[in-house]
Amino acid sequence: YSTSVGARIHLSTRYHMSPKLTLGTNYYRASNTINSRYLLSVNCQYKTLPWLSIGTGYGISSNSPILIPLNTMFHIGFVDFYMSTENILSGFSITKSNVSSVKLGLQLGF
What we know:
By secondary structure, the protein is mainly beta. The protein has one helix spanning 88-92; strands at residues 7-16, 21-31, 36-49, 52-61, 70-76, 79-85, 103-108. It has one domain (7-108). 5% of the residues lie in helices and 59% in strands.
């Protein structure tokens, strides 16, 4: 009998070009004996108002040759509420796409 443990790596960078514009990169890799996945992307986040940020990017993954994510974040005090999709293109071609997702989240910052 033998077993193995999978590994996950997530690296990201952020560079604040200005108080309103942030650029970044992401690398993610998950591997185990059954399935291996990767994601490589570049992104930007723009703070339109003190309480609102929007962002997009471009990426490639093992599941899709092109990803264009879109996200919105509302900043209310120490609470951030966000909405995002991994690939805005899959929303326009749901019948041809294997996956279409929208994520909602809440983040607390202290």
